């Protein structure tokens, strides 16, 4: 069958109800006013069929966002046992020239997920097994033969996917701590997905930090003597972060740092966040001190959203993932060159979150233990970063007081951003960033 097997209007009607149920839908809680299916492409023409569609969803007071889906089609006579525990992946019944069919998320069908891989990446050895990654994701991830991971981009808001753009560039300059793509899916000038090596046995930094903290709270001793001490890993992670920045500078170039522009962006962020716990005058003084710096080092393309959940520890060292940047910020802003201390600040804030999150998880009140762990590991991370960055050269200002002021300003800015995020998403956590920024004025 070469003709399009299902009408776009019929798909659009089902998508009105399907999209809000998906983890990757960007307008959670907002009623959809209209769905337009702009493209339908056949990837597998025989039954069960697989089609790729692009659909834009319009919601009130927001620009429409375009999403990509691979839709499976099976006869209504077929049982969809693989979807019984995930009814949210079913669109509904549709009409086809061959009769009525079930329409559903085709990547939840292992037969179609294997067929999609062979169709999209014919230069790679065809896999035999596939399993989905079910964690909360803004894209869809599938693991093939425990050796490759396919990331299909869901949002097509921009033709160039930032994660693919940066990961590919870092691989091209030989940065060893990123899973460089071995397959890229592009069509019509748009980035649609990529295949990367699967980091089998890897553990994410957040899980490692929480394990260390559980051990700390159990022993109540010196963090340096705890069996789960994380400091050596934090120092290695700092070194890897500096190596990443050097590779980003090589891949995308450098500019002269602009502390005035950085301070202006921080002041704008400060104005957006409305909370009585923020000392606005004190924060502004920090930003203006930074704006007056005569030399703030280099301005480069950065990760943009670096935290413990974006790094994985393997037998060969740390790997950095997901270069899409902070998803709530505009794409143009995420691509702007800035200080490497933006990423350093992001990791420092993540270490602080780990300490206080673990204390709440363990239902203990050991603030001093949490504070000691935080200080030890942030110190180790910064030491590893600064030592490696200075050895590689070309990124940081020479003056130590300037470095300290940049660290303070960028961490303060990140903390203020987190206050706004927690107000909107997890108000019960807002005290974590508030307590942190109170020590940074």
Condensed summary:
This protein has 441 residues and is α+β, with helices and mostly antiparallel strands. The chain has twelve helices and 15 strands. Helix 9 crosses helix 11 and helix 11 (400-425) runs antiparallel to helix 12.
What is the rounded distance between the termini? 67 Å
Helix content: 40-55%
Structural class: alpha+beta
Contiguous low-pLDDT stretches (5 residues minimum) are none
Please give the radius of gyration in angstroms. Answer: 24 Å
- Element order, helices and strands? HEEEEEHEEEHEEEHHEHHEEEHHHHH
Please, what is the average pLDDT?
92
| Strand proportion | 15-25%
Shape: globular
User: How do the strands of the widest beta sheet line up side by side?
Assistant: 1-2-3-5-4
Q: How many E-type strands? A: 15
**Count of individual helical segments:** 12
Largest pleated sheet = 5 strands, antiparallel
Write a structural description.
The protein has helices at 8-18, 110-120, 162-172, 205-219, 231-252, 259-272, 280-291, 331-335, 341-362, 367-392, 400-425, 431-438, and strands at residues 32-44, 49-59, 65-75, 90-96, 99-105, 130-132, 140-144, 148-152, 183-187, 190-197, 203-204, 255-256, 298-299, 311-314, 317-320. The longest helix is centred in the C-terminal third of the chain and has 26 residues, at 367-392. A hairpin with a 5-residue loop joins strand 2 and strand 3 (65-75). It is of the alpha+beta class. The chain has a five-stranded antiparallel sheet. The protein has twelve helices and 15 strands.
């Amino acid at each position: 069958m070469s003709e399009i097997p299902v009408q776009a209007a019929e798909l659009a009607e089902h998508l009105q109800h399907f999209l809000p149920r998906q983890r990757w839908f960007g307008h959670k809680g907002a009623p959809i006013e209209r769905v337009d299916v702009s493209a339908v492409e056949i990837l597998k023409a025989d039954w069960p069929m697989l089609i790729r569609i692009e659909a834009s969803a319009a919601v009130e007071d927001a620009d429409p966002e375009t999403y990509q889906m691979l839709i499976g089609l099976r006869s209504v006579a077929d049982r969809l046992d693989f979807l019984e525990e995930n009814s949210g992946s079913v669109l509904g019944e549709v009409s086809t020239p061959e009769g009525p069919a079930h329409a559903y998320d085709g990547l939840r069908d292992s037969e179609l997920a294997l067929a999609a891989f062979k169709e999209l990446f014919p230069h790679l050895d065809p896999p035999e097994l596939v399993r989905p990654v079910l964690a909360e994701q803004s894209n869809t991830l599938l693991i093939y033969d425990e050796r490759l991971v396919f990331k299909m981009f869901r949002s097509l808001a921009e033709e160039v996917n930032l994660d693919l753009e940066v990961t590919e560039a870092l691989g091209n300059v030989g940065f060893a701590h990123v899973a460089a793509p071995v397959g890229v899916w592009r069509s019509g000038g748009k980035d649609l997905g990529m295949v990367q090596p699967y980091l089998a046995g890897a553990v994410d930094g957040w899980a490692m930090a929480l394990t260390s903290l559980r051990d700390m709270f159990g022993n109540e001793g010196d963090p340096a003597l705890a069996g789960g001490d994380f400091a050596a890993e934090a120092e290695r992670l700092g070194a890897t972060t500096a190596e990443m920045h050097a590779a980003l500078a090589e891949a995308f170039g450098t500019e002269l740092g602009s502390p005035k522009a950085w301070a202006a962006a921080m002041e704008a962020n400060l104005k957006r966040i409305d909370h009585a716990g923020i000392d606005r005058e004190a924060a502004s003084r920090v930003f203006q001190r930074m704006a007056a710096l005569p030399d703030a080092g280099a301005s480069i393309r950065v990760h943009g959203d670096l935290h413990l959940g974006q790094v994985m520890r393997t037998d060969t060292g740390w790997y950095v993932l997901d270069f899409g940047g902070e998803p709530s910020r505009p794409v143009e802003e995420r691509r702007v060159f800035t200080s490497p201390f933006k990423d350093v600040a992001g990791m420092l804030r993540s270490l602080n979150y780990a300490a206080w999150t673990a204390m709440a998880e363990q239902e203990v009140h050991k603030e001093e233990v949490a504070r000691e762990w935080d200080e030890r590991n942030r110190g180790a991370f910064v030491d590893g970063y600064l030592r490696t960055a200075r050895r590689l050269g070309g990124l940081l200002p020479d003056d130590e007081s300037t470095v300290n002021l940049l660290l303070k300003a960028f961490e303060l800015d990140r903390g203020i951003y987190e206050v706004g995020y927690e107000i909107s998403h997890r108000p019960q956590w807002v005290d974590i960033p508030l307590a942190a920024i109170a020590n940074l004025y």
